Amino acid sequence: METTTGVSELTEEVAGLRDLFRRRLLNDKVQQQAVDELTKRLNQADRRAALAMVTPVLRQLVLVLDRIGEPDQDDERVIAIRDELAEILTRCGVTPLGFTTGLAFDPGFHHAVARVEVDDARLDNRVVAEIRPGYLIDGLLLRPAEVRVGWLSLTTRCPQGAGPEEGNINNGGETDGARTEVF
Fold it and tell me: Which of 92, 116, 145 delimits the end of a domain?
């Protein structure tokens, strides 16, 4: 009987230890997940703080790049400076928005500098020309693209001579005039 009691006590003790180990392993896993999440949040906060400090400088570098534009092929020094500035911006995580002409106007990524009257309904509220490119930094907008936006001509909007007084709204009620409206 004594061996049966001893085996039963050992079995209970082993089961208790097994349960204790499982709980501690689970607790360690939960704690590690919490530490990982806090570390991730801290790194994101550090990145945002660093971006907040360098963003004004990066915007100025983008403006310098705009001023340089496309230099003559003979001016090697200006080309070298332009390429170096572009490389610095790339290393800092700055990327151009890319081709915007033809896309639907999105005020989150575009800054309309002019409206251009168009006769094709497919160009209504679409970017018809990019004046200055936009840039992202780590997926966030650094500078919106400055664009001209198409808007349907009055004759297309009001096909049978209907004017603004009949419920058709256009540029403040104007019925004719300049083909481009600058903001």
Answer: 92
Residue 109 sits in the same domain as residue 88: no
Of 44-58, 105-119, 158-172, which gets the smallest average pLDDT?
158-172
- The pTM (predicted TM-score) of the whole model is 0.61
**Residues 82 and 139 placed together within one structural domain of the fold:** no
Q: Give the SS3 label for residue 47.
A: helix
pLDDT digit string, tens, across residues 62-74: 999 999 988 788 8
- Domain coverage including residue 38: 1-92
Domain boundary among 76, 92, 108: 92
User: What b-and-e string marks burial along 115-135, b requiring 16 or more CB atoms within 10 Å of the CB?
Assistant: bbbbeeeebbebbbebebbbb
Number of domains in the chain: 2
Q: What is the DSSP-derived secondary structure letter of residue 179?
A: S
- Number of H helices and E strands in the chain, helices first, is 3, 7
CA dihedral 43, 61, 109, 125 (to 10 degrees): 180
